[in-house]
Amino acid sequence: MTAKIVVFGASGYTGRLVVSSLLARGVSPVLAGRSPGSLQALAEPHGLTYRTADVTNPATVRALVGPGDVLVSTVGPFNTFGYAAAAAAADAGAHYVDSTGEVDFVQRVQEEFSAKAAGNGATMVPAFGYDYVPGILAGALAAQAAGTPGGYLRIGYFALGSLRRGISGGTRATLAQALSRPTTLYRSGSLRTRRMGSTTYEFRVQDRGRRAFLAMGTEVLFLPESYPGLSAVEVYNGWFPVLSRAAGPLTLAAGALERLPGGRRALAKAASLGGAPGGGPDERERSRSGSYAVANLADSRGYTVVEVHVQGPNVYTLTGELLAEAAVALRDGHAAATGVQGPVGAFGLEGLTALSARAGLRVM
């Protein structure tokens, strides 16, 4: 019996993109979520099967998959809603991939589920979308090209074109939560925390300098595992040049606001501005922007040794394509290791490069 691919959160914004990408590949996924009406409306035109499941009733999520199946989770924010799906996959021996951008969620998945997943023969690959495959691919290629121990790796994320009206509700919610939290970086064999936005760095993007602020990224978790010679790994976000200049004061203010009565509610309300919380840019809006990431590997004197650039479609389009490609690869037995893995650990650098190319991500 062929293993099935289940898209959990299928009727949400990212879930719909994943379903569309799978259908374009000739794959008929099982749709899952908590709203039977929305699932039925999405499933019927394509003759798809759907199942209801709710994170508040973990047994319903666990019932979605069996050994060897693939669970694609798009139900976020993941720190709030994501654990039921990850636990279900680990318990069932099902492969797992998700769209989270929350590094602390990924750390918890590593700690709680890696041994169980490995024991059950499953591969779990969290954060396999625009967050953070482009940076990991670019960083891995830079580390491999350098070929020598050591190196200070900085990874920057940028948008080509305008994202002014192109941010989804899920992204806004994640960003609002992140403003008041410390970010993680890697230094000489250990993880350390610093305030998000506390420093900036200028990258070369299409032959001009663009500044980005210190941000979160799973590169700090996974790249040192694959390339232990790296002495430092940092991740930066340069989507909005104005925000890069204001990020330091903004994160200070967000931290202070969160400590006040009602502060968390105020941040959540700010995240909802600009559109419906569950919505996101349509195909026309997505066509107006592209994704770009840079990996800059410098030596101990600060001189660039290797620089790798990757470019792809709109960040949401790319996420849907990457999740679909990963789900098919896991279903077809192309994982390189079991347990909770980063993109390189899960597929190998050659496999990840090929998978990313099929999703539209090009190495420049």
Automatic annotation (TrEMBL):
Q: Which SUPFAM superfamilies match?
A: NAD(P)-binding Rossmann-fold domains
**What are the Saccharopine dehydrogenase NADP binding domain coordinates in residue numbering?**
5-125
Q: Where are the transmembrane segments?
A: none
Q: What is this protein called?
A: Trans-acting enoyl reductase family protein
